[in-house]
Amino acid sequence: MPYCVHCGAYLEEGQRCTCAGALAEQESAAPADPEFIPLEQSAGTPEAPDSNPQQPAPSPAPDAGPQPDQQAPQPEPDSPSGPEPDAPSPDPGGHTSGPTWTTQSGTGPSAQPPRPSPVSIALKNLRPFLKAYWRSPAQATRSAVEQQDWAIALVLSVIQCLAAILAVLSVLIRLNRAIASLFGYLGSLMSYVGMGGGYFPAVSPALCIPMGLLGTVLGIVLMAAMLLVLTLLMKSKTTFPTAFIACGVNTIPVTAVLLLAFLLGLFSIGLGLGLLVMVLPVFAASGLISARQLCPETDSGKFWLCYLVGVILVAAITWLLLSALFF
Fold first, then answer.
1. Is residue 69 domain-resident?
2. Which of 153, 171, 240, 267 pairs as cysteine with 272 (C-beta 3.0–4.6 A)?
3. How many domains is the chain built from?
């Protein structure tokens, strides 16, 4: 499907975009001002330059003698059709004028602007896609799958990774404060009874980066793989990139919960942890939107049972890998 090279909007066949960049390009492609037209085009119909500007003198008749008052033939002046195309012509002010423009490679009205990358187009279309997803998540997912818009899915997945890192960071900060407060009280109590203080461990906030990235990537990749297997079980045809697009565009609800967990986790560890736990049902609900767009039959009990088992497996594998690496 064609799209505008300036704003990235999708266009129908033969449709012209009305953005500022497209209008400026159309104006620059309009006919140039007459004073910038080369001289050979200013006289209306162009005439070819006279290839033989001088005519040879006619030879005298054989029987005619030389005449004293006959002068040698003078060469005729140049054709009045105008100077050569590249020759300057004087104007009334005494200055010479000629073609005032030149065609250079890559410049001028005929030069095409560079085509934007798919990621830049996805960034420009991010706000319209969010509005379309707010109106109808199923319709927005169907459109992204039909157009194979992997760029918008990739951008939304990266945003979810950042939101997951922030959410885990806020929870770890509050957890360290709670541990420091608890063990600080125990240390003062032990010093009071003469047992001395001790070292009390703390969780490094730097763990939020690998935990957030790995949790998000595992969730999206495993969900896409589960949807691919589900479509095969339901006798439907799809590919892994298509399943990834369907999962990537439906990361918006999970991203919203993660951002809320980050904001509330700065004030209360209970609210932060509670919202992190709520990510699992939201993840299952958003994945159901993707599954319904990839599978033609979603009303049978087989579909619901397979989807439920698949979501449980995805959550279990993700938790086991995270706990084995970080706990």
1. no
2. 171
3. 2
